[in-house]
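Priority: low. Protein: aldehyde dehydrogenase (NAD(+)). Input follows.
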Amino acid sequence: MHIHTRLYTDGDWLDPLGDGTIDVISPYTEEIVGRVPDGTPADIERAVAAARAAFDTGPWPRLPVADRADLLDRAADLLERRAAEVGALIIAEMGSPASFVAAGQVPAPIAFLRAAAALAREFPFEEYLGGDGGQTLVLQEPVGVVACVVPSNFPLLLAAAQLAPAIVAGCCVVLKPAPESPLDTYVLAEILREVGLPPGVVNIVPGGSVAGAHLVRHPDVDKVAYTGSAAVGRQVASWCGERLARVSLELGGKSAAIILDDAPLERTVADLLPMAFLNSGQACVAQTRILVSRRRHDEFVDAFAEAMTAMTIGDPADLGTQIGPLLARRQRDRVEGYLDLGRDAGAKIVVGGGRPASQPRGWFVEPTLFVDVDNSMRIAREEIFGPVVCVLDYDDPDEAVAIANDSEYGLSGSVWTADVAAGVDIARRVRTGMVSVNGASQASDAPFGGFKNSGIGRECGTAGLRLYLETKAVGIPGSG
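Result:
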């Protein structure tokens, strides 16, 4: 049991202003593994006030950028030393498979911290423009107090993706982790305190939707960074629009993997499988629509189904597990509802379609493969957020691109081919923020985000840093 009775606010551990608590439940054992305070609007008020004071009168926004970057590097070093501890917490609180935790859930936040520090040291925070009769000094200044609201599926990864550029830019932050997975953020708070982050620069308040809404709508919050569902993202954008607060949104996806006819079958199946079932299917970038030509449809389905059947389902703490439980009982219920919707619409299940008999407890759903799917079906259009994949067929690459783009989402996608140049040509036509050719991964400083209902803005890299900056132009008279 990991019991926390206080909140990290204004550089200290403070008693909460309410008496509610959040039980953190293991999705594998269905037992309580931790408990934290349930942040109230009063706790949010206190945290925002601390961030506001730290930004308006504290040293952080006025420190040299190099000093802020150095602190981020030290935090990355400490996080790396505690990687095993943090990884165990993420497995316990949200059931992410240990192999993926070791490969992504913990290394990625460390990389984000270091990448933001390196970028800040080279970023042009001040530039001079020439002009008749003088110069213009163009300044990039921190946007102010930032609300970071992150979901439960990548708790530390997404927190770092928002926190790193925000604080290296000179902003002060209130972070609200999801109620299902707040435990790892306590380690983050300990690390930030240990490296000497000034009071109020980062404040962490776990809580549910009431606390989140109060934070997003707070008049002293200058910018909101939200990661989550498109439905909630629309509400967040509306609230920010009411007061013209800056906002960035990283939302859902329904990404398409286009398999061209020349793609080598065995390698494509092996490399696509983990991208389709990333984090047990609980990833906005998961490749959940697989587009195959009618000429290769049966061949591909047979091979992919065989690979799915061989996947290991079970204890997320076991390094051999490929599919763990879903992060909440309500999410399992949601996924099972989509399985029924697919059957009712006429789609056929080739693999899976129920709960694994090998797992008498835990919030598991079998990896499921649908065929005979039309792109108008709800299982092809809506984000299921579980280990469910649909295969759709096409006649030629033009039709494949049209099907891929026929979605309200535009986050990710992939093209699979023996001809990389042809794959890049197809990738240029796919209306998403990210596309991989043959599963190639992105650099940690590459822009992350999507088109359409997949969000507004980009995280990571230069684009991510600019989300937390305001531009100021200062006219300077000439010597004459």
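The first strand starts at residue 2 and ends at 3. Residues 17 and 42 are 6 Å apart (CA to CA).
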